[in-house]
Predict the 3D structure of the following.
Amino acid sequence: MPDSPIQRTAMACGLALWALSFTACGGGSSAQPQIPRLSPAVPATYAGACETLSDTLASLPNTRITSAALVAAGSLSVGGQPVAEHCLVTGHMFERTGPIDGARYAIGFEMRLPRAWNGRFFYQANGGLDGNVVTATGSFGGGPLTHALHQGFAVLSSDAGHSASQNPSFGRDPQARLDYGYQAVGKLTPMAKEAIRRVYGKAPDRSYIGGCSNGGRHAMVAAARYAQDYDGYLVGAPGFNLPLAAVANIWGAQRYATVATDPTNLSTAFTPVERQLVAQAVLDRCDALDGAVDGLVQDTTACQAAFDLSRDVPTCTGARDGSCLSAEQKAVITSVFAGATTSGGTRFYASFPYDPGLSGSGVGFWEFTAPLALDSGAVGIVFKAPPENPVGFNGPAFSLNTPVDTLYEYIHSTSLSYTESAMSFMTPPNPSQLSTLRDRGAKMLVYHGVADAIFSVDDTIRWYESLSANHGGDASNFARVFRVPGMGHCSGGPATDQFDVITPLVQWVEQGIAPDRIEARARGAGNPGGVNAEVPGEWAPDRSRPLCPYPLVARYGGSGSLDNADSFVCR
């Protein structure tokens, strides 16, 4: 029996027809409303002196413009291609003093406004705990190929209401928490659109928001809270359950600590050599499931049924030497991949799929460093009400010694001063109910690395299944998820991780062309956007693969080069 709403639609349409046209039957059900197509953006130009924009924008509400300057063509580049001349505007919104810690706060931002503007606005949602106004290029996960600024968008980037020097101590300020969670987007959006109107003589015709990791979370939260403000939502590796994921990662660290050979080095619980051993075992069991033995596991779902850690990886009979795993290691790894649970056995975060990308270097960081250095401060200071005192806070001790049930309570806690829990201000309300977004013609494009070790692709698929169930059994007419086999968190791993997801999203929103496949390439030697050192040497340096909309899988067509996307079909 088919096991997902889209697979059930595929069966109804006929598998052969589905392979030819993913959208053929997507809107045929009487349960699916007619979705309007939004009109294309119309370009405009700005011919004035960039330096005068400080005066033009001086009266923006709750805003102080700090600088405006010309950026010459070629000063920035992406994928070896120069970015055109544009104006750079910087400023702050809602400057204030925190009532609890006495610290200065503001929502810092920069906007980059092209001379030749394509009529579109892109809100660049940034990652981690924010705190930095990174260069407003409109970049996204994966290897650099293009970005929104390069394509002529007006782009905004912000620090989400605090400075990097305040990470994670900004969690002491109740308003800074809310700005970080969702309110900075709500405050910056109307300001940016009004600034664009003043500069170009019209507001943006089409608006997009996107990012990866916490940036993907921002975009998904915006889809739920600000569905009227954006026409396209570009959602990469979304940490939309970030507080739960952070607690799950700490729980995993506590499990790994029980098998670490060096108590001061958590990575000795599951070393790079041992992770490579498991990655190869996954390949041995699953590589051919998509019709090609090529170092990539495309059929992720089938692989989880085919691979068994206990059976397929040797169990050590003596000392660990990289050729085996101890029975204790296998028990811990199995539990971590199955998903975090409370002490009573209730699962509160998703499982993680086995994938050859487990060998990627980023996996070790997220599994063994982040729980002690990043998740500890996030849970203890930003998500807990009231927060821990940042002075003298010991992240490793907090993570390794706090019971998981207590951590779980922290992310749901409130107090007189901290009136919203982390699960309120950090996550999208009713994420599986997006009819407002759908009915106005907006679209959501999601991509997620299968080997992501911090935000599980299984959690994203579980959300998408729920979204489909709540929208007539098929959400593919307004939202699609693209899994990236082998890719870690946002990029990297033995993967084809260089792709353009902005162009297909714009085509979907403004032309009604739904993305049936997105071509992705490896970043091997000579790649102008930077080399991914984890691309296997036996691959062509520019190997390409189609990324397929879930639940479809890139399968070898039976002939043609294994390094060419044209040899693969989504079915």
Observations:
- The mean pLDDT is 94.
- The CA atoms of residues 254 and 400 lie 5 Å apart.
- DSSP finds 18 helices and 17 strands in the chain.
